[in-house]
């Protein structure tokens, strides 16, 4: 779609002062999908030269905001970490054409803040941390689970840039379980639940997204029983936190959220018991 209110596209490397009506341009798959009458200038990130994926000396994984879904998927299929299969599972939950895969970015998926954003689900479940940079160059970090504050809302100031997301080595070493539900065979996620089991201390985390307006991550020092998990979800997720749109009513999303969470808990608990033998 043509954005007929945009007067110019500027190179992000020039570091010009931020103006009203500016927007960061990554892959552009969302920006060019619908009218953006408030925009006057796009600040293009395509030539900043950030390495898409970087493994740190401590075993952590830094994913640049400009990393495409195709690059993330390719890396996930070759990555040897225990949690690597989760990367491809979440990329497949994107349910987009190859053209979108090769243009859509990790940063764009996070900054759109949509409940069904699969990169949000992936990085929140793996305890990811966002690196943000203001126009003044000040950097700060915030957990992905806290970065998304509601449907389409995020903890991002005017002109602030999402530079990257870092996943800790500890999370990459976890066993994982993945469940997704949609009203249609190839539809947008109506509920997506990811579980992680830490082989070091036996702790378990269950992260719920898509069904809720923002990701909810529940951490337990030991695998919970069915009742404990349900009580934790009920205490944290209020009636207004279940998402409502054409892809699923809140009542259905709530039902599927609890059901998938229990399936994930059961799978990982069984793995924990098998590993203890």
TrEMBL record:
InterPro entries to which the protein is assigned, alphabetical: Diverse_Substr_Oxidored, FAD-bd_PCMH, FAD-bd_PCMH-like_sf, FAD-bd_PCMH_sub2, Mopterin_DH_FAD-bd
PROSITE patterns in UniProt: FAD_PCMH
Pfam families attached to this UniProt entry: FAD_binding_5 (PF00941)
Domain named FAD-binding PCMH-type: residues: 1-172
Protein origin, superkingdom: Bacteria
Protein name stated in the entry: Xanthine dehydrogenase family protein subunit M
